[in-house]
Amino acid sequence: MSLSSNLNFKNKNISKKEIVNFLNTENSDILQLISLANDKQETNEITYSKNVFIPLTEVCRNYCGYCTFRKDPNDSKTIILKDKKEVIETLKKSEKYDCKEALFTFGEEADTEKIVKNALKEKGFENMVEYVYDICDTTLNKTQLLPHTNAGVLSYADMKALKEVNVSMGMMLESSSKRLTSTIAHENSPGKDPKLRIKTIADAGKLKIPYTTGILIGIGETKEEIAESLLVIKNLQEKYGHIQEVIIQNFRSKPGIPMEKQTEPSLLDMIRTVSVAKLLFDEVSIQVPPNLNHDTNQMFLLCGADDWGGVSPMTHDYVNPDSPWPEIQELKRLTNEGGFILKERLAIYDNYMNENYLNENLLKKVLYLKNRC
Ligand code: SF4
């Protein structure tokens, strides 16, 4: 197959068949695909958000076959509910590193577990969303950070409430394939029903919440299913315009997980998928998590990836306090070496910094911090 006839992908509708063809490219066609995606790269700036990651609970109603986050609620080491005081202390510490994003990521519907429900009750909260609201509100009022919550599937009403105290929110679609809900990846994960996830992303669009989503590849999906998943996101973006970035995440195996023996996506799989995503989306950032691709992440910049996602300067600090921001320094080196420039961004992209997406309080804070990036 020759790709040479497809020269301009700006505002071009790409069919599922074309996407599948791109995902199946071989030999020198792969180089052509990279070149097409590279041509669509409109900037040489590669962005990242300086964040601090706060897992409010490690309990989750799902049991995904690839999960490395969820913990057993009966294990004494599991974070059942991170105390607010501890959260604020961590956020305060992160200010010293000039972090500007408070990333609250945690298990889905954890409050369906009695142990979490009780912990919430003890603190005077009815459910997880009430607690998250309170934490985000305090984050806004007592720290310089901007909250970004990733809580998995949420109801319209819950997102409406959280919108008031979050500059953006997110949830990976992962895959739009219903078939995967009867495979090792998602068979024990009611929250991975694509219908629920698509509804959550659509509701975020209706509510005008700047949103991060993406796909996870290598969990047993077919090329057709990758194409469908990308098209679902594309359609949601065309309908609501709220998707600020699409993450292309690769499955990584880890000892002890149910999918331990599953083959990881190859570098070429990632190259093809990142390139296709670049061709498919206009004015949406394409993000590849650098920490999942230590040896290969520079390659994705040539395929059109333009964002590294959230990077925490605090992560390594506990290990090596004399070397501040080692990850960011390393990221800068990797970015520069490819001929690109590393640029800090906020948890909300510039296009969404207006009153259509943010209330007055959030907008004021965002505009103030934007000048400090
Ligand atoms: S939704 Fe799945 S991947 Fe996410 S924390 Fe729960 S079990 Fe893990």
Provide an overview of this structure.
The chain is an alpha/beta fold. The chain has one domain (16-370): Aldolase class I (TIM Barrel, Alpha-Beta Barrel). The protein has helices at 16-23, 27-39, 84-95, 114-122, 128-142, 156-163, 194-206, 223-240, 267-280, 297-302, 326-337, 360-370, and strands spanning 45-54, 101-105, 146-150, 168-170, 211-217, 243-250, 285-287, 307-311, 341-345. Strands 1, 2, 3, 4, 5, 6, 7, 8 and 9 form a 9-stranded parallel β-sheet that branches. Strand 6, helix 9 and strand 7 (285-287) form a beta-alpha-beta unit. Helix 3 runs parallel beside helix 5 and helix 7 packs parallel to helix 8. The radius of gyration is 20 Å and the shape is globular. The model is unreliable at 316-321 (pLDDT under 50). Iron/sulfur cluster binds next to loops.
